[in-house]
Amino acid sequence: MAVLFVGLSGCGTFSSDRMMYEAALSDADYSFERSVSQVENIDLPVLDRDSRLADYLAYAALNNPGLKSEFEQWRAALNAIPQAQALSDPRLTYSYYIRSVETRVGPQQHSLTLSQRFPWFGTIEARTDAAAFAARAAYQRYQARKLQVFEEVKSAYAEYAYLHRAIGIAGENLELLEFFEEVARTKYMVATATHPEVIRAQVELAKVLDILNSLQDLKQPVIARLNSALNRPIDVELPTPQPIEPAGAITNKEEILARVKSRNPELEAIQNLIEEARSRVALAEKRFWPDVSVGLGWIQTGEAANPAVSDSGMDPVILTFAMNIPIWRESYAAAVRQAQARVRMHQYRQENTENALLVAAEQSLYKYEDSQRKLELYGRILVPKAEQLLQVSETAYAAGDVDFLSLIDAQRMLLKFSLEYEQSLRDNLQAFAEVERLAGGWPENTP
């Protein structure tokens, strides 16, 4: 019977790839649950003034509910594998003869039959393959969600850091304009400046104050966005962010696009769903073949009326074989066609997703390259030149060599270029994080 079990269940023909996969799960039940418990019992990082972006990412990885949901889906899919490998429960049948049947060896009163059903060759293999590929797809969806959460945190953190820096720049310019306005009023009082210069200073002062107020009003929505990614109450205050630096250079655009096609977890998840669907096709085809049941029965027999009968009163032991008769062929064919349609559905979905991801990658790479160019332009040229122009204009105005309008224009230019540099730095980090998500992580040879 053991030989029959192995042959009919198809358990001896697993592919090496899945055998490796299942070997990783063989330690599984205890070690996996223990590792999960260890992760779940880790305390959340404390976010304070010394916290860096890595601390925010660690906090989100441990606390984001969407990521936890995908993790639990992966855990559920893993536990479907041993269920797919298992045979159906043995069947125990008890029979009681209401009217005893007299036989040559005695009356039959009770019987017990224990039977086990074995699916056709390869059925368990196909079923287990489907469960294993479904688990891999769930794992890739978990990875995709993790990359998405990290992008959300990085993007929100970059926005928060930009806002903090922009408020500081606007505040510095406000103080500078307040000084200019005071100088203009003083010079007006001694008749060395005109009234329009004072008004112009007050107008610029009001404009910069409006910019500062807008930035300060934006602070709470930005904090709410970052808190949401961290799964914290949206109105909880956040510490002052650490200064951010430009992201590393992307030197090989073709490599990034190739990684999108080969490493993006969304595409890998769909590929595993395709393999699962193919296993479902093989499983549906097994329905054309019968399942076999093997049983062992025992009948309790009383003493025969004539004790002289040979073997009187002996209990018979019966070996039974049974199989279902697969006659509903069109129904089975429909199941095969349904499974094949699911294969094609996932293939088309994979193609569509790949196209969309490549378009998104092209757009993200453009935004990244554009932000890199602007960082170079503003950081190395425009902001230093605007600072130099403001210093020269202030000196020249004090000496009476330029008018007040030139001084205000120089200040306005510095404010504009400084804010645009900070915006480019924010855009640079956000585009970098988006490319990283699309590429399934950052290439090893890229900073």
What does this structure look like?
The chain has 447 residues and is of the alpha+beta class. It has a single domain (2-86, 119-289, 326-438), classed as Outer membrane efflux proteins (OEP). It is built from twelve helices and four strands; from the N terminus they run ααααααββααααββαα. Strands 1-2-3-4 form a four-stranded antiparallel sheet. α10 packs antiparallel against α11 (329-398) and α11 runs antiparallel to α12 (404-438). The radius of gyration is 37 Å and the shape is elongated. The model is unreliable at 1-38 (pLDDT under 50).
List the helices and strands and how they pair.
Blueprint lengths: L1 H8 L6 H11 L1 H13 L12 H11 L1 H14 L1 H6 L5 E13 L2 E13 L4 H67 L5 H36 L22 H11 L1 H21 L6 E10 L15 E7 L5 H70 L5 H35 L9
Antiparallel strand pairs: 1-2, 2-3, 3-4
Describe the structure concisely for a colleague.
It contains 12 helices and 4 strands. The protein is an alpha+beta fold.
Count of helical stretches: 12
Provide the helix percentage.
Answer: 55-70%
Number of β-strand runs: 4
Q: What is the radius of gyration?
A: 37 Å
The pLDDT mean sits at 81
Main sheet summary: 4 strands, antiparallel
Please state how the strands of the largest beta sheet are arranged side by side.
1-2-3-4
State the shape: elongated
What are the main properties of this structure?
single chain, 447 residues, alpha+beta, Outer membrane efflux proteins (OEP), 4-stranded antiparallel sheet, 4 strands, 10% strand
